[in-house]
Amino acid sequence: MTTYNLLLLPGDGIGVETIAEVERIVDFFNKSGTAKFATDTDLVGGAAYDKHGVAITDAAMAKAQNADAVIFGAVGGPKWADVPYAVRPEAGLLRLRKDLGLFANLRPAICYPALADASSLKRELVEGLDIMIVRELTGGVYFGEPKEIVTQENGEKRAIDTQIYTTSEIERIAKVAFDLARKRGNKVHSAEKHNVMRTGVLWKEVVTAVHKSYAPDVKLEHILADNCAMQLVRNPKQFDVIVTDNLFGDVLSDEAAMATGSLGMLPSASLGAADPKTGKRKALYEPVHGSAPDIAGKNLANPIATIASFGMALRYSFDMGAEADMLDKAIAGVLAAGLRTGDIMQPGMTKVGTAEMGGAILDELKKLAA
Ligand code: NAD
Q1: Does the active-site annotation cover 82?
Q2: DSSP-derived 3-state class of residue 243
Q3: What is the CATH number of domain 1-103+273-370?
Q4: Separation of 14 CA from ligand 1 center, angstroms?
Q5: What is the CATH number of domain 130-258?
Q6: Is the pTM of this model over 0.85?
Q7: How many CB atoms lie within 10 A of CB 201?
Q8: How many A from CA of 76 to the centre of ligand 1?
Q9: Cα→Cα distances 240→41, 343, 346, Å
């Protein structure tokens, strides 16, 4: 049996509590002989700063480079509000993304039937929803130069951000989207603004070319990003995979997420380039939420986003689709049984803490695996 190297980086605040629940699931897989995970743990964020004076050490970075997958909790909190900018907790996550070359951000929006009434959209629109948003993460307007605020001769200030995309940047993210679609509903929507942006024109041209040469078997539709935003609240179930740039992806993935209820439910994955020899991608999996200092250390955090992030690692880094499905089913089962952490609490349901929710998911998983 292949041994998979897993690096756990709990970080700060509730990251520590939610990663502990992932560890219990990893233990179960190891003990039941389902898989062999060699797990290592290290510090990141404020916890790393307190011990080492940096947001992540070179030694932890080396472990991340060698790991088959990194599972990240969360970083930050008021305790580190005044630390120097270069070593602030978030710098740890940014270095991981940069040094591992994580250019593809995968954000699923899944609506568990038991939570359909917690969505801001009507039940019939979101029940059974399963969308994957693929956001380009390392290019576009957040990084393009020039990026500055200049004071003009007349004293007025002028701010500039620059949106840049190259053919190869678009090609590699399009391929990730087509590969994913093949494992799902076989449909990709590519969202851009070719009507008003030159980068949109190139985006559409390159995605069309990649589709033709690489994935003619997948259905491709082009959609203007503003229309995509509208369709996500009008009829979200029409989508399977949406591929888009960094800025539009930032907005559209948050919008899609809200269809599913709470921050505590949202997993994500960030993938790098495939190794030409092994085909393996560098990968980091993390909940979308932060360190939630307001509830940290109180057994109040919802661990589902972090557990579901591990589920994505099973699917995308370890080729353990059956186990990932089982874990999703365990989460759905526990929710259907009426267990809720505070963030997703509804009338008539049973309120539980982090460890109880994690324990219930583990028990359900054991039943499904038996
Ligand atoms: P947050 O996501 O930490 O919390 C926002 C709200 O949602 C809070 O009320 C919190 O209690 C609640 N919440 C979040 N996750 C929850 C969960 N799993 N279960 C139950 N409730 C949950 O965002 P914030 O308050 O803006 O930021 C807090 C700290 O986290 C800041 O230092 C911020 O910089 C950092 N942050 C880190 C990341 C990351 O590590 N990727 C992401 C966002 C924010």
Answers
A1: no
A2: strand
A3: 3.40.718.10
A4: 8
A5: 3.40.718.10
A6: yes
A7: 14
A8: 9
A9: 35, 27, 29
* Closest Cα to atom 34 of ligand 1: 76
Q: Ligand 1 center to residue 295 CA distance, Å?
A: 9
pLDDT in tens, the chain (370 residues): 889 999 999 999 999 999 999 999 999 999 999 899 999 999 999 999 999 999 999 999 999 999 999 999 999 999 999 999 899 999 999 999 999 999 999 999 999 888 888 888 999 999 989 999 999 999 999 889 999 999 999 999 999 999 999 999 999 999 999 999 998 999 999 999 999 999 999 999 999 999 999 999 999 999 999 999 999 999 999 999 999 999 999 999 989 988 877 789 999 999 999 888 988 899 999 999 999 999 999 999 999 999 999 999 999 999 999 999 999 999 999 999 999 999 999 999 999 999 999 999 999 999 999 8
DSSP string, 207-227: HHHHHHHH-TTSEEEEEEHHH
**What type of residue is 145?**
E
- Pocket lining: 294 vs ligand 1, CB cutoff 6 Å: yes
Domain boundaries, the chain: 1-103+273-370, 130-258
193 is catalytic: yes
250 carries an active-site annotation: yes
Domain 1-103+273-370 identical in fold to domain 130-258: yes
Our answer on whether the CB atom of 264 is closer than 6 Å to any ligand 1 atom is: yes
Amino acid at 88: R
Helix ranges, the chain (H): 14-31, 46-52, 58-66, 89-99, 123-126, 167-182, 198-214, 225-234, 246-258, 304-316, 321-336, 354-369
